[in-house]
Amino acid sequence: MLLSRLYYDKAQTVVRKVDRLSRQAREVAWVSGACMAIRRADLDAVGLLDERFFMYTEDVDLCVEVAKRGRRVLYVAGAELLHHRGRSAPHNPQLERMRQRSHLAYYEKHLPGWVPILRMYLQLTGKL
Q1: Tens digit of pLDDT per residue, the chain (128 long)?
Q2: What secondary structure does DSSP assign to the chain, as a single string?
């Protein structure tokens, strides 16, 4: 989250690094579900999208599950997609709360030791 904030605040060191990395095809931990191609057999093997994630984080979870099966997740630098990010936000004031619940569900599934700390943080900041 810190890197995202620094990128959007136009911290030049971060912007240059992100721009450089976004021009290189490479193996990554996850890719955005906004532009994802996956073999049907791999999708079937992991059981499609986990329904615990109402909104957000389901793409990260899917990539983690695919990687657990020994498959690679690749970022393809030459692919282009126009995604109108945030178009649903004005219609749903609870969007941030839903995003945080999905984030918490991800931690419950993959990093359970961190759940109490994350839950406390989200409650203290009013995001849960």
Answers
A1: 566 667 777 778 888 888 888 888 999 999 988 888 999 999 999 988 888 887 778 999 999 999 999 999 999 988 887 777 666 555 666 777 888 888 899 999 999 999 999 899 888 888 77
A2: -HHHHHHHTT-HHHHHHHHHHTTS-EE-S---GGG----HHHHHHHTSS-TT-SSSSHHHHHHHHHHHTT---EE-TT------TTTTGGG-TTHHHHHHHHHHHHHHHH-GGGHHHHHHHHHHTT--
